[in-house]
Amino acid sequence: MSAWEALRERFDLPEEPSAEEPPVIDVSRHVEMAAALKEFGFTMYVTVCATHFPEEAPKAKKGEDPPPPIPEHWEVATVLRRPGARSETFAWRVSVERPVVPTLFPLFAGADWQEREQYDLVGVIFEGHPDLRRLMMPEDWDGHPLRKDYAIDTRVHPWR
Predict the structure, then answer these.
(1) What is the pTM of this model?
(2) Domain 3-56+70-127: top CATH class
(3) Domain residue extents for the chain
């Protein structure tokens, strides 16, 4: 039995996995998902990737009222791997209106620097992380440069 089959009902996953579009689960079940996968042998923390989506006003179809705006939100995708002969990966996403997601560091030491990187560049706060501070940008840097609302023409001093 695959991890997908075993976790499908527990986490309300679709019938078939999609490599292009990992399932979205509620943020309150983020740590539970990671712990369940660890029990299935997914012991390698591969990556975490956060994306910022500013508020967006969708375009109205001709002759119709415009749909309501899509509120600002963040998506955080996590990928774990089961190493060995039956190696496979499992990915899922959480979508949040505030950039706060529980840390997976207590379960996977490999989450340490990757969560710090996403905090530094996108501004996602990994709640419970023991050392959440900038990793790539100077401590006095203003903002998070990979947010979509970060000004592209922000002036910076040359790095040496």
Answers:
(1) 0.89
(2) alpha beta
(3) 3-56+70-127
